[in-house]
Amino acid sequence: MRQRHEEFRGKLNAMITTCRKAILSSICLAILVGSAFAQGELRFCLRSEPKTFDPLKVEDDASAAIRYLTGGVLIRMNRQTQALEPELAQSWKVSKDGRQITFKLRSSISFSDGTPFSAEDVAYTMQQLWDPSLHSATGDAFRSGPGNLEVKTISPIQISVTFPAPVAGLDRQFDQVAILSAHSPKKEMAVLGPFMVADYKPGATVLLKRNPNYWKSDAQGHKLPCLDSIRLDIQPNRDVEMLRFKRGEIDLINSLDSEYFDKLAATSPQLVRDAGASLDSEQMWFNEVAKAPLPAYKKNWFRSANFRRAISEAINRADLARVVFRGHAQPAFGPVSPANKFWFNAKLKPEAYSSDAALKALQSEGFRLENGALKDKDGNEVVFSIITNSGNKYRERMATMIQEDLQKIGIHVNVVTLDFPSLIERMTQTFDYEAILLGLTNVGLDPSEQMNVWLSSSDNHQWNPSEKTPETAWEAEIDKLMREQASSADANKRKQSFDRVQEIAVEQMPFIYLVNRNALSAVAANLQGASPVIVVPQTYWNVERLTIPGAR
Amino acid sequence: MKLWRAFACVVLLLVVGVSLAANWLAPAGYAKQYRESPGAPPSHEHLLGTDDIGRDRFARVLYGTRISLLLAPAAALLSTLMAAIVGGLAGYLGGAWARGAMAITDLFLSLPWLFLLITVRAVMPLNVSPLFSVLVTFLMLGLLGWTSTARVLCSNATSLRNSDFVRQARASGVRGSRLFWIHVLPNLKPVLYAQFWISIPAFVLSEANLGILGLGVAEPMPSWGSLLKELEGLVSVGEEPWKFVPLVLLVVVVTSFQLVLSKHDEAAA
Question: Do B122 and A422 touch (CB under 8 A)?
């Protein structure tokens, strides 16, 4: 019996020793793999599944990120200086009428699969982009009038593209056009950008590998990009993204929440970056739709510019920025964020918060304060609701703070949170709402990207959509100015027109702009070369020059 | 057990008393925003700190307790009563009645109540007072929350109907409603109590979730549900432990209620 016990103990010891060895070897292997990992693989999260790898069909953020990392473009906007820089095009020239652009291309460049790049590829890409059956959002940006596209290949390195009508900011639009190969059997998977798609596991990861044929080199003559690969994990949950960053499993987070930013800053201030006011704005507006199912007296309030201005004056924007966004936002006062260096109208001055001045302005319009409640000249108590989308704690908090601000001048506000589809239905179909608080995400800098908001005939002209003819003189003036700037090739003339649009927007207050959120991000300590900016893609705009020590 | 019951009674009285004294204990009210100190930790001025927009958490807990303590049990009572009527009668009557009642119950169970609530919110006017929104919320919870309880009660009532003492009562000439009220319903009491107490925390949490649909208690009015929403995104318990006060209060109150009423359960058993 004892012998059996000893035999058993001996076997057990042998098994334990084997297990220990196995564990030890696994740890060593993991360390080796880990160190290989650290040699130039950038890891971060995509917040949704990319819907396409075809750069011409991109509509969602995840696909746009992959296009930015893999696509080669003729002209690139430097995200830091906001100026245009030559990429695959050595130089370019836009005609005076804004219809034609002529490119001189770089020579001796190849796609990732080795297929040579020439003007033929640019012609092929533009023709694909113009095909209406493709339903390309990128292509739609060039479609400013009816007619056909004319592409003329002057030489293998020279090409001109003529559009049927002037295109506003024509050269800037090419920042989004990734060139496809006309001859490669790999079609859109043959790329000219710094990385190429190597593997895709739906719902899990997209693996990008370094493009061996990428044309750029650094100042020392080293071939770019510095990184070997990029692993994009598909992770919609922001809490998980944050935890993974803290554990060192990912290297960066874009568009960080101000709450998470502060939490991370409290423990590791060196990992967070606040690039200042972004292009995004939070705003509220009143329902000015004539056929809206609202009482006539409320329609009169909402359609009065003085009423809207008084409400705007009674909102403490500095408090919204400081309390709701913990100081990571700037009070907004116009349709363009000051972060948009060229298009922002610097003559506009921020509106001072004053509930007394707001009350006086309302009193001059016939409103009166009775027992703490504001009433209009017909004795109707000023009560209205502000809807915002439920689940967005920042907007819910802003609405609650506005509720208290307006209470000071006797206005009773009901805050209503609705699920997004119900809100959109009220906003676009039934018009059964009084005021809405929502945000606007601006990806591009050019005002032509805001045409759908400012033109009175547009569906997205939120305060009064799809007007057959402009219902007010100032809306007619905005229409005229927006069309003028869109059809001009002269940047200064365009700026003059858009400056006036901004002035009208501030005078009439169809949107009461509240804050511009800051562009917040987190960058791992081992990631070098990252200098986050306000323009998408914020943190990795200079991806080809990002390094993780030991990458070379 | 008696000592525990007495202790639970004291706790409940204390919670109810303190919540009723909210006007004196927190005179500034639940809506005042101390914008200079948002998200502040507990201090002399703010015993439980302030929320993200600077409202005194202690005041909000007191006023929220008042609302939730009154309305969650009211909704639980409504749903339990409906379940008792539908499930108890169906089980007692049996046959086609039971099949019909259970078919209706199944129909209600199969309804996507989330969409139903979204529809209710969509048809509700926007300019309603926060108090009205509270009443509608708990009424909806009460009206929709009876189905699973009704199924449990139906099966219990069926077994009671076939039990010896009910048969004996029937043989002795007891009939109709008297048989139901005297012999069947009292024996369903333990199940009813259990279902009632289970419903209260469930309704409090449902109210918190309904906030996401815009059907919960409207701002700036507090409720336990809206206070529990503050725990979203909390990474660790030790981070801001004072935020757990509404949760602790919910557990303490529900446990105390169960302890106090366990005497009735024992008697009923």
Answer: yes
Most confident of A344-358, A419-433, A499-513: A499-513
**Which 8-state DSSP code applies to residue A221?**
S
A316-367 tens-digit pLDDT: 999 999 999 999 999 998 999 999 989 999 999 888 899 999 999 999 999 9
CA–CA dist A256, B244 (Å, integer): 26
List the beta strands (DSSP E) in A218-344: 229-234, 252-253, 272-286, 329-331
**Residue A178 to residue A190: CA distance in whole angstroms:** 11
Helices A491-508/A473-487 angle, 10° precision: 160
Q: Which residues pair with A159 in a beta bridge?
A: A103, A153
Question: Rounded to an integer, what distance in angstroms lies between the CA atom of residue A510 and that of residue A109?
Answer: 50
**How many Cβ atoms from other residues are within 10 Å of residue A500's Cβ?**
17
- Alpha-carbon torsion, ordered A490, A495, A496, A500, to 10 deg: 140
Orientation angle between helical segments A305-314 and A491-508, nearest 10 degrees? 80
**B128 to A397: CB separation less than 8 angstroms, yes or no:** no
Query: What's the confidence (pLDDT) of residue A21?
Result: 52
What residues have CB less than 8 Å from A374, skipping those under 6 apart?
A359, A362, A367, A368, A381, A382, A409, A410, A411
CB contact (8 A) between residue A433 and residue B118: no
Distance CA A304, CA A146 (A): 38
pLDDT of A466 above 70: yes
Interface check for A432 against chain B (CB to CB < 8 A): the answer is yes
The residue among B217, B219, B235 with the most chain A CBs within 10 A of its CB, best to mutate, is B219
User: In Å, what is the CA distance from B123 to each residue of B116, B127, B205, B212?
Assistant: 11, 12, 24, 17
Mean per-residue pLDDT for B25-48? 93
* For B232, nearest residue in chain A (alpha carbons): A239
Give me the phi and psi of B129, to 5 degrees please. -70, 155
> How high is the pLDDT of residue A28?
44
**DSSP states of A286-308:** E---TTSSS-HHHHHHHT-HHHH
How many A-B residue pairs are in contact by the CB < 8 A criterion?
A: 74
Instruction: Tell which residue, A314, A290, A292, A462, has the closest CA to residue A382.
Output: A314
Chain-centre distance of CA A425, in angstroms?
Answer: 24
Q: Is A397 on the interface with B (CB under 8 A)?
A: yes
Q: What gap in Å lies between CA A197 and CA A62, rounded to an integer?
A: 13
Cβ–Cβ below 8 Å for B127 and A383 = yes
Task: Please judge whether B35 and A323 are an interchain contact, meaning their C-beta atoms are less than 8 angstroms apart.
Answer: yes
ipTM given for this complex: 0.80
Give chain A positions within 8 Å (CB) of B208. none
Tell me, what DSSP letter sits at residue A134? Answer: G
The DSSP annotation for A44-86 comes to: EEESS----S-GGG--SHHHHHHHHHH--BSEEE-TTT--EEE
- Helices (DSSP H) in chain B: which residue ranges? 2-20, 22-25, 57-83, 89-93, 95-110, 113-123, 130-144, 147-161, 164-171, 176-178, 185-210, 224-228, 245-268
Tokens for A224, please give them: 């770019």
- Over 50: is that where the pLDDT of A105 sits? yes
| Cross-strand pairs, A479 | none
State which of A46-50, B66-70, B132-136 shows the largest mean pLDDT. Answer: A46-50
Mean pLDDT, chain B, whole residue set = 85
Residues 6+ apart with CB under 8 A from A140: none
DSSP state of A7: H
Residue A78 burial class via C-beta count within 10 angstroms: exposed 0-12, middle 13-18, buried 19 and up: middle
- In single-letter form, the type of residue at position A434 comes to E
Distances (CA, A) of A380 to A25, A369, A486, B130: 80, 11, 44, 20
DSSP-derived secondary structure letter, A148? -
